[in-house]
Amino acid sequence: MSMHTVVLGDSGTSPDDVIAVARDGARVELSAQALAALEASRRHIEELAAKPEPVYGVSTGFGALAVRHINPGLRAQLQRNIVRSHAAGMGPRVEREVVRALMFLRLKTLASGRTGVRAEVAQSIAALLNAGIVPVVHEYGSLGCSGDLAPLSHCALTLMGEGEAEGPDGHVAPAAELLAAHGITPVELREKEGLALLNGTDGMLGMLLLACADLARLFTSADITAALTLEALLGTDKVLAPELHAIRPHPGQAASAANMLKVLAGSGLTGHHQDDAPRVQDAYSVRCAPQVAGAGRDTLQHARTVAERELASAVDNPVVLPDGRVESNGNFHGAPVAYVLDFLAVAAADLASIAERRTDRLLDKNRSHGLPPFLAHDPGVDSGLMIAQYTQAALVSEMKRLAVPSSVDSIPSSAMQEDHVSMGWSAARKLRGAVDALTRVVAVELYAAARAVELRADGAGLTPGAASRAIVDALRGAGVDGPGPDRFLSPDLGVAEQFVRTGALVRAAESVTGELA
C-alpha cells in the first residue's frame, strides 16, 4: 500500500488522486471541511424526513415505484432493500483498480455535502479503501443512467456487511468477516443514504480516468515506435520539421512530430530514402504518423476536459443544494462520459491500425528497402516475425469491433420511467479492452522495429541514433533477444508488452531525449 494520502474536502480532486487511490493504494481522509459539509446537508434531509410531504429518495420508493409514500417505520428497510435488490450484477468480476476508483469517486461526491448522507457513511467508505477491502463487483448490471447502479450497489452491500469482498491479500470472503477483521462496523442506512450510495457515474468516470492515464503513455510509446520504424525503413525525418506542422496547427500533431524528431536525433539511418530504390516520399503509415497519433492526442485532451468537469461534479438524485433545497435532477445521465469513452476507442483503434501497417511494411521484402523477408535469419528455413504480424492484425481487428459506439444504444428500463440510458458503463468496459489491445499492438511494432534497426546497422554499417540504441539495449536487457534463428516467440512478445505497459519504453527513450510529450 502507498504511504501517500489523499484528503477530500479541502480542494478539488485531481485525476492523479484517483489514480493514486485506485492503483497505488493511497490512503483517503476526510477533511474537517468535508465533515462539516456532510453534517450540514444531513440536517436538511432529516428536516424533510420529519415532514408529511413525500420527498423522492427520502420518503418514497424509487424509479417507477416513486409514487408510494413510505412511512417512517419502513424507511430504514427501504434503504437496505434498494441496495440488496440493485446488487444484481452478473458475469466476471471487475478489476480491483476499477472498483477502488468507483468507491473513491462516490466518496468524493458524498464528501461534497450535496447528497445528504451522514458523516459516518462517508467515513466507512474511507475505512474500506484504507483497509484494502474491495467489494466483488460484476461485469454486467449498469446502463450508465441513474448511475452505475448494480456496481455501486455491490459496493454499498459490502458497506452494510453483506455479500462478498476481496481482502488486501486477494482472498474473497464474506464481507461481514472482512469488516470485523479490520474493525469496521457495518453501516445501518437511514433516509436517502441507500440511494445516495448508488446514484453516480463513478464507475464509468473511474474507467475513463484510468484509460486517459494509460493512453497518454501509449501515444508517447507509439511516437517512439513510429520513429524506430521510420529509421529502420531508411525514411526521411524532413516531414517532421516543426514549420510543416505549424501550418496545420493541431497541438497533438506538433507534439507527436516533435517526439519523433527527438528520438531520431543523430540517426545515421534516416535520409537514405534516395539510395538503391529511390523514394520521393515515404508511405502514409510512416509519413502521416504524427497526423494520426496527433489527432488521437487531441481526442485524449478533450476526454480529459470532460473527465475533469465530471470530477468537479456532485452527481446524485435528488441533490441537496447550498440553500437547503432538495431537488430532483438528471445529472446522473452518463452521456457526457459515454461519448468520450467511445471517442477514445475510435482513436485507439486507428492508432493501432497505422502501427500494424508500419509493422507489415517492415516484414515485406518488397517494401522494406533491403531488409530480409519477415526479418528472418534464414528466410524459408526461418519464418521470422510472420505470425507476430498475424497476432497484431487480430488485435487490430478486435479493436475495430470495440470501436463501435455503445452510447448510440439505449434500452428503456424501470417500466419506461428510465426510457433513455447512456450505456456508458459498456463504453468504458470496451475501452479497457481497446487499451489493453493497443498496448500489445505497440509492443509488436516495437519488437519488429528494434530487430529491423539492428539488422540494418549490422548489414549496412549504418548507425542508429542514440535514443534508438538506448531503447534496443533496454529491451535486450529486459530479456528480449536480438535477431537470430526462429525461437518460441510468445514469451518475447510478452516481455515487449510489459516493456510498453510499464512505461519502460518511454523511460528508455527519455534517458537520451529528455522528457517527451
From TrEMBL:
In-chain residues carrying the UniProt-annotated modification 2,3-didehydroalanine (Ser): S146
EC number: 4.3.1.3
Gene that specifies this protein: hutH
Protein name: Histidine ammonia-lyase
Main location (coarse class): cytoplasm
GO-annotated molecular function: histidine ammonia-lyase activity; phenylalanine ammonia-lyase activity
PROSITE patterns membership: PAL_HISTIDASE
InterPro entries: Aromatic_Lyase, Fumarase/histidase_N, HutH, L-Aspartase-like, Phe/His_NH3-lyase_AS
Homology family: Belongs to the PAL/histidase family.
Pathway where it operates: Amino-acid degradation; L-histidine degradation into L-glutamate; N-formimidoyl-L-glutamate from L-histidine: step 1/3
Domain of life according to the entry: Bacteria
An annotated GO cellular component: cytoplasm
Keywords linked to the UniProt accession: Cytoplasm, Histidine metabolism, Lyase
Native species: Streptomyces abyssalis
